[in-house]
């Protein structure tokens, strides 16, 4: 109801709401996407020099793009066309997808990091490690 979360009233078309949507698009989508792409490109350059490129550097940017992209597309299209013809339930789908991005990032990190992956496997494995057996 306050217009500050994912349940926005897209039927409003005044200048204040449109400027709010553009500001939200910049700070919630374009700026994080830019920072993510640049950061991982720099990380990839650094890791290629050392020869330790074991990280998928495009996955976080793709996750952000596919997770927040539909939501950004919805509220940016609301500035141009009338999206009130889209049912409220369907309007919530991009917001719900965007809300899953932090969980997907955590899963990507856990499965992408060899150290974390081994630790998770060790915790889930019924066998004790050799260090535990030696004690």
Automatic annotation (TrEMBL):
It is a multi-pass membrane protein. One of its GO terms (cellular component) is membrane. Gene3D superfamilies: Rhodopsin 7-helix transmembrane proteins. Its main location: membrane. InterPro entries: GPCR_opsins (IPR050125), Retinal_BS (IPR027430), RPE_GPCR (IPR001793). One of its GO terms (biological process) is phototransduction. It is found in: Membrane. It comes from the Eukaryota. One of its GO terms (molecular function) is G protein-coupled receptor activity. Keywords: G-protein coupled receptor, Membrane, Receptor, Transducer, Transmembrane, Transmembrane helix. The chain crosses the membrane at residues 17-40. PANTHER family: OPSIN. This is Retinal G protein coupled receptor.
